[in-house]
Amino acid sequence: MEHAQEHEACLEQTQSYCVERPIYNQELLQGQLHRRERTPQTLRQKIARSCRCSSKKAKSHLYRFLPILKWLPRYPVKEYLLGDIISGISTGVMQLPQGLAYALLAAVPPVFGLYSSFYPVFLYTFFGTSKHISIGTFAVISMMVGGVAVREVPDEIISVGYNSTNVTDSIEYYTARDAKRVQVAVTLAFLSGIIQLCLGLLRFGFVAIYLTEPLVRGFTTAAAVHVFTSQLKYLLGIKTKRYSGPLSVVYSIAAVLSKITTTNIAALIVGLTCIVLLLIGKEINLRFKKKLPVPIPMEIIVVIIGTGVSAGMNLSESYRVDVVGNIPQGLHPPAVPEIQLIPAIFVDAIAIAIVGFSMAVSMAKIFALKHGYTIDGNQELIALGICNSVGSFFQSFSITCSMSRSLVQESTGGKTQIAGALSSIMVLLVIVAIGYLFEPLPQTVLAAIVMVNLKGMFKQFGDVTHFWRTSKMELAIWVVAFVASLFLGLDYGLLTAVAFAMITIIYRTQSPQYRILGQIPDTDIYCDVEEYEEVKEYPGIKIFQANASLYFANSESYTSALKKKTGVDPCAISAARRKAQKRHAREVKKANKLRKKATNDMEASVKHEIANDELSVNGKFASADATVQDMYPDEHEHFVEPKANIHSLILDFAPVNFVDSVGAKTLKSIIKEYKEVGVCVCIASCSGPVMNELTRLNFFDNTVTRELLFHSIHDAVLACQVKDRSASQ
């Protein structure tokens, strides 16, 4: 009883509307509307307009190119400064050890990680639009850079010319190898920065949309496996060759296992101790996030402890533990990258540029949505391009947004880009003043920092179960991105994943969902008849909908699905008609022959009866033709022409975004074929852009007019009913 009362109250609250209007097709609707007059501009006028400059336009472009000019004069010092200072210090404390650690991934000396944590971060303050992301070294990009550096400068090339029996222990060998790899990394940063800058100036910020979330997550998970395997040799303190390219993970693991007996126990103990401390620190920060004013800077604590223990116990000399080594004080003078390397690394630079931008802009969008401001994707491309290209002149390698540091920068109260600038100044102080103090730092400590920071990426393996429940297609993208990036390398893996994602888009448009719609009684709402019990079809009318555009790739499947769903195949009906007509003609011909033969036989029989004086009662002979007619009645009476069981077909074009020339021809062919079997085809809910495309493609003519296009499905249904009633009368 209570439920019934609630239902009645709900019905009373339901709003309704009643509109009385004519049945609109496009011909009638366009006749009642007046188009706005628009004067088309010539190409010369467009160029002149874009080149015209005013003080307001120049100011707008300047503010867009240098966002700091817009927000810095309005900076509320009392409200924001303290939070930015705390955030900048907290982020800088993370920036320092991560810069040193990720330099190992990039196959360059650790000091270059510090350079990459200063110049680009400082530059982003002026050109970036995100207030919360932390620019600098990042594991995935560093790994991609390292792969290119090792591929272009393998150990075998540098070892040529050294006659020492123990080449790997030669200081000159390491110096020459590292110098060449630095040049590759620097040139790669320069080229990727130029690519990002050009894409930003050309307003190509949309390229990031082709790196979908499943693709990026699968790719970064594979990159985490690459990073982890590359750090095993530092954790174990063994010396192996670094591999790049396809199957590099397999080769790296095999190389580590082959030399597992040479493990440096001291390095392993130090590394495992650091991993345990870092995991404990992260767990404390996570559990007591609301109670702690700032996160515990466990990474810098581990670096300080590791450096102190290494220096105090002289791990380098006593236990042969590999350490960071020479960290020159001061900044390098600017130098031009080696341009001759560009042809060999061009494809890699494109991959790094797009992945770096995708990482930064996705993180920036998350924070912008959370804090209620907007970012400019094209300006982010320009900012990253300037950070990479200008930073390369000062020996920094490719950078992007770091997820872990960005979360720390935002959670510790960072409000603007000032926090990033302060973190870069902290790194500068280390480079200029106290960098030499970190020379005894064991490399196994840096490997531990890298490995623990991969924890978040390894959690992405949980995406498999998530995508299995939500979308099998996105699961396929994730798996392909992961497997391809894991075994083919990050560069070829990314290209393979993007290509597969494109194929899935084509597959989805080639295999859309097709539905037959029916009316919810006493409304103008139409839904899938197979999904709802209340939905009913109109007798003699079929409403067909495909949730995709009509173009060359799916035009055939559209036609076949239309015939299957409606149960009306014009070709089959026409063929059946022709077959029936031929069969009927043969039967009539056969009947005529039999009739003629029977007539001749009857005449002979009548003559014989006359001879025997057998006359009819009324004195007249029985008609031979009449008798034969009774024996062989007219076959036309039994001929029924095959025909369709519907009189109208409505195509719902609401989901259609575009139609190409093949689609227009297919649509015209459908209208013609169904007309031949007595079915009138109408198009409903066709959007303006699609209508304009059909007009440009010369779709409309004497046989196909705009009268077949209706504003809505309900308009088309009512028009078909009126037409059927008038035809039956």
From TrEMBL:
It is found in: Membrane. It comes from the Eukaryota. One of its GO terms (cellular component) is membrane. Residues 531-720 form the STAS domain. Signal peptide: none annotated. Keywords: Membrane, Transmembrane, Transmembrane helix. Coiled coil: none annotated. GO terms for molecular function: secondary active sulfate transmembrane transporter activity. It is a multi-pass membrane protein. This is Prestin. The chain crosses the membrane at residues 100-127, 133-150, 184-211, 249-280, 292-313, 341-361, 418-438, 475-507.
